[in-house]
Amino acid sequence: MSLIVQKFGGSSVADTQKILAAARKAIRAAKEGHKVVMVVSAMGKTTDGLIALAKQITDRPSTREMDMLMATGEQVTISLMAIALESLGYQAVSYTGTQIGILTDDAHTKARIRSISTETMRKSLNEGKIVIAAGFQGVSDDGAITTLGRGGSDTTAVALAAALAADACEIFTDVDGVYSTDPRLVPEARQMDRISYDEMLELASLGAGVMHSRSIEFAKKYNVPVVVRNSGSDAPGTWIVATPESKTSSVCGAAIAKKEARVTVVGVPDRPGVAMTLFTKIAEAKVATDMIVQNISTDGKTDISFTVLEDDLPLTVDIAKEVVAAIGAKGVETDTGVAKISVVGLGMEHQSGVAQRMFRALADKEINISMITTSEIKISALVSQDQGADALRAVHEAFALQVRPDDAQGPVVLSKETKLSPDKLEGEYLSRLTGMEDIIIESVSLDNAQARVTLNNLPDTSGIASSVFERIAKDKIVVDMIVQSVGRNGRANISFTVSREQLPQTLTIAGELAKNFRSDAPLHNPKVSKIVVRGTGLRSHTGLASRIFRILSSENINVTIISTSERSINIMVNENDSQKACDLLKKEFAKEIL
Ligand code: ADP
Ligand code: ASP
Ligand code: MG
User: Taking a C-beta distance cutoff of 8 angstroms, is the pair 87, 124 a contact?
Assistant: First the structure.
């Protein structure tokens, strides 16, 4: 007998009529012969309301009590759902996270799942009952209620599907599926039939609120087929599976993170270990950083910029100020009104010119980019918040994301393509994981063929990145990593890497560009190496980047560029250090490497 997990989000259980409608969906699945586990969120905007109550009392309520408070929202829904099912003549039983045995760590409001006990659920399912589980919540070792982070019911659902080896996990929400971007912001957005785990993970982590990113880590690790569907219709939805929709398109989707903040630590002594201190402290507070950019220093001092969610800013600034005092840096600057626009696609790994197309789209709308970072399957640009929606639209159009690719794969046929197959991610390997959300590293590898070019002191106006990379692309030079930041003096600095063979050609062009822009003569390093640490969910595991910094700095190895994505962390070091750095990281991750 097959087993499915059905998750209903807040808007799909916003009132009792919707709760009854959700109950009917579960009944339909039960009648089709499935065992059904429902995971439900708090009704409508209940969680927001609960948070607002606490904020009426204090700005910084304790996280333990916030979890106690927020978890009540889901408890209301599970009981009403059970009542609804019983009223429709079906046997049902509701369970809180604690009752099921969803064990988490004790990181209140951001807890990670360690293990899930399936006994209670299995027993009820075998008694012919529909099981209703509270989303978003768990329990720590010492019995305190924890929550998984906003939007975390998706993660509960996919985690339960993984633990129960369910045939599929259906995510019912208020849109027809996963779109090329948020359809509320870009009405032309196209609904996809399917999207790969890697792309969905990246998009979710970069702001596509339709799925909690950690739920996709589970889906990928445990090979759970997930389908996002509309709770108000019978539309087939979008499947999230191992393979992408199209093999030819460079970009599958775009996302906006509307509430980002930029933090710059200025005047940081440029020696190994300094960045480590900063990011370790921030990681310890479980704050996820993105778009880390360290300007190449000319005077032994450097600026380190990165972005965090606006909500995490007060805490991040407190930590950064402590670090500034400890390392003898100059100060901390912040910029709130910023938004991060990203494009994502597996195809970009093998295609050049993608970044330049994005920069051109923004330049044509006169949107200024204050920071750029890239990794092999995503490009992110920071723009001002009030231009965020326009920027998203411009980028969506530039990649014609509203158009279905010619080679698009259609909907997934469940039995044929997605059966939970025992592959190397299952069985023996997973049994070694102590925590279900523990990090998985797939490989550590070294690319010794790169050179770095830096253009400092460019004017900070719209179209700069676009002119630079268009000019470079004209000569068929393939650019790998790109970082751009705007320094204290309001001048932009752009660094990028190219292959060593193309360096001389690139330097000629860079010289030309520097002259035209009246900026400094280009700097370069003819022999840099890229170390790539690959895995799943690397960015959301906040401690990983700092662990890497710590290992390398303990051997005095300086990291010049770091770029992070959910799938990989790329670290640029001098070639002389590269073999040693790679060996050190391999040793460090030996236990985690598949
Ligand atoms: P739920 O309460 O069901 O969990 P959410 O509000 O968390 O629902 O997620 C659904 C919303 O996600 C949609 O209403 C849509 O505005 C937003 N969204 C953002 N990006 C995307 C995307 N790429 N595809 C579909 N929806 C998206
Ligand atoms: N109710 C929680 C929230 O609003 C969890 C969820 O809906 O996924 O964040
Ligand atoms: Mg949600």
Answer: no
